Task: structure prediction
Amino acid sequence: MNIDILLGLQWGDEGKGKIVDVLSPVYDVVARFQGGPNAGHSLEFNNVKHVLHLIPSGIFHPEKLNIIGNGVVIDPAVFKKEIEGLGPSVDELIKRLVISTRANLILPSHRMLDAAYEAHKGNSKIGSTLKGIGPAYTDKVSRNGLRIGDIMRNNFRELYADHLNTHLAILRNYDFKFDLEEYEKGWFEGIEMLKKFRMVNTEYLVNELAGKGKRILAEGAQGTMLDVDFGSYPFVTSSNTISAGACTGLGISPKLTGEIFGIFKAYCTRVGSGPFPTELNDETGTLLRNIGREFGSTTGRPRRCGWIDLPALKYSIMINGVTKLFMTKADVMSGFKTVRLCTSYKTEGIECLEIPFSNDTPIEPVYTDMPGWDDDISGIRDFNKLPQALKNYIEFIEQQTKVPITLVSVGPDRNETIFRK
Ligand code: GDP
Ligand code: IMO
Ligand code: MG
Result:
């Protein structure tokens, strides 16, 4: 069981990129299994911050292999830009990165469709990142997609034109602006960039490496509460962000999976629309946003902030089968006199522990209050040296979730990480 999975338990942006980078030294392979350029995974070392969208977060470790799995949707224009901005040369990156032939392509017209659909949603906008994710996955599932392997076909340009014409016929019904020619130029340059990389049936590669005893870390994007089946539909993304998604997104059997690392913030954030029971539309919410620098890594939008939501966290742990919890950003809450944890919900006065089916069900969070912690904890590397109030907070979450918190992140840098012994 050499394949561990790391995924987000909330609404994304839990700090997956940072922690995958931190854990990479103990793995041979890092593999992304779903999502696409809607993701923004940040990691920091040597005082430089990097934000990755399509490329797995193990890429800065020269000796590690990174795989973009079949479950990912790839926009070649974003891919090229990302490769060119990483730092290491293209020749070097070619050695470190392999791409699945089966990963579906995001076409420029998928972005147009995303923009058109959102523009016409009126008050019920999803708050999509507008990267073409929904339309690309729609075409995949309706068997109309183009895949990475198709770019090697002699008639790729014709195939592309057919898809574009189908999309343009739909788009005639919508009124919105998009510079198709300009985007297409960068997109086709991206296709040429992709051709320099190894494109293989990565399901064979992953299984072969696992069979040889190589250690693989599957990296999720988004978060469980944005899962297309289990999130607050329709305010979700279009893929399965949960542990099961690692199996379909890489072509591996559940029998091969080992640890399931669930990562969460010490509080909650959400970008885009949809229910957020513990949201703070007050000074405390603004403080969390400003201290935690809670602005989207992909779109720059301000993230909605709120207290930790334990019913939602327990739900995510259940759906994913989480074996170990990693907590990030407790440093952001330093200085709060009291911290609050939502332990259950009330709907119309009745206590309820389940996430309701309907987004219209009125939910009132029930809170437990605990004393906060004051100290700057970003320099601490020994769990025992954390302030007692924070240790109590951690212990309370462990009691509630019945899963150990084995890693605590106290800052964005690689080094600002505490492994619990
Ligand atoms: P991801 O999408 O899950 O990879 O998370 P993002 O990169 O979108 O958002 C997490 C943000 O918090 C990034 O700006 C990280 O640099 C930062 N971050 C990660 N862990 C910590 C932490 O423990 N403390 C603080 N203060 N920032 C963190
Ligand atoms: P990472 O991997 C936070 C949100 C969007 C929107 C909804 C649908 O960085 O955690 P989409 O573009 O997928 O159609 O948007 O999902 N969303 C994210 N929120 N982190 C992400 O990724 C996200 N990817 C999508 O804001 O509400
Ligand atoms: Mg992010």
